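Tokens as discussed.
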């Protein structure tokens, strides 16, 4: 029995299933969560399937959460998608169920769960869910399920522009489109920003500090967010913006949190940056990671470390 079959057999054993994902979810977290939940509901209408976590205002068009009680976890199968480590699971009760499954495409630095499937070659967790469904006699790829999974794949591949996009990724996405999903509508939702967010992008470029190596850093502090009237969640819309510049190859974006610390977004077009993230209470993909910095001094420290990583990368001719 392969890993996919084992997961499906476990799903069949439980009448109550809760699907969770990581905090501050992106389209892949929500798409893989909701896509899997819908596939289970459609295949097994007698099962109670719930999805949990905090709602994300800017992604309510994609998915909204159920309100979970402690009793919901009693005797339940809990499945966590798109979440590398337990600290990022968006419900502290994740381990309160009867059995725990991890499904993910991030490096498996925290191999939690009673059963797990991790494929770091997959473009997204949504692609993995599509593969699980394709391997099953019970689970079916319906138009509704495909909608959520397509959104997840588009989100994590940057509209199929990132290196993780493979022929298999495109084949899977093609199956979704063949089912008649509103691909144009999904792309429009993802492209949409408020006027304040558009102004933030201009401010970001004004603040962007670019080293001659091609490493860059920008800080989005409370003062700027208050000036533009945007939330921290809305500020995340400009994370990819520095990568549009010819002069920038790897970058950090620091967004101030309520407690005065900073959430660090790390991105790269070549040099591996997830080890840097791990050194600062974070982690993620080789070219896209997150971390934390306690103050601006640590932000600057990370920038200097990024410069060194970029310089070493290009010295080696990689």
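Sequence:
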């Amino acid at each position: 029995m392969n890993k996919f079959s084992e997961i499906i057999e476990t799903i069949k054993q439980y009448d109550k299933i809760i699907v969770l994902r990581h905090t501050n979810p992106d389209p892949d977290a929500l798409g893989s969560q909701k896509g899997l939940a819908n596939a289970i509901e459609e295949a097994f209408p007698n099962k109670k399937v719930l999805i949990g976590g905090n709602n994300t205002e800017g992604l309510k068009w994609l998915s909204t959460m159920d309100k979970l009680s402690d009793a919901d976890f009693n005797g339940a199968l809990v499945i966590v998608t798109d979440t590398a480590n337990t600290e990022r699971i968006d419900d502290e009760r994740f381990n309160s169920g009867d059995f725990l499954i991890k499904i993910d495409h991030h490096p498996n630095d925290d191999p939690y769960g009673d059963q797990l499937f991790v494929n770091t070659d997959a473009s997204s967790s949504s692609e993995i869910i599509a593969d699980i469904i394709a391997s099953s006699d019970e689970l079916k790829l319906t138009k509704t399920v495909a909608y959520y999974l397509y959104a997840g794949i588009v989100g994590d591949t940057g509209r199929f522009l990132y290196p993780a996009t493979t022929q298999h990724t495109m084949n899977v996405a093609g199956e979704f489109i063949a089912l008649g999903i509103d691909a144009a509508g999904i792309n429009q939702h993802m492209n949409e920003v408020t006027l304040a967010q558009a102004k933030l992008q201009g401010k970001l470029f004004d603040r962007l500090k670019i080293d001659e190596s091609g490493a860059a850093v920008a800080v989005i502090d409370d003062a700027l967010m208050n000036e533009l009237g945007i939330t921290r969640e809305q500020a995340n819309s400009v994370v990819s913006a520095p990568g549009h510049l010819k002069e920038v190859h790897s970058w950090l974006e620091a967004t101030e949190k309520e407690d005065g610390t900073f959430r660090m977004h790390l991105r790269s077009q070549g040099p591996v940056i997830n080890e840097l993230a791990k050194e600062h209470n974070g982690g993620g993909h080789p070219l896209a990671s997150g971390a934390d910095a306690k103050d601006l001094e640590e932000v600057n420290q990370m920038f200097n470390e990024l410069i060194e990583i970029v310089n070493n990368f290009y010295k080696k001719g990689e």
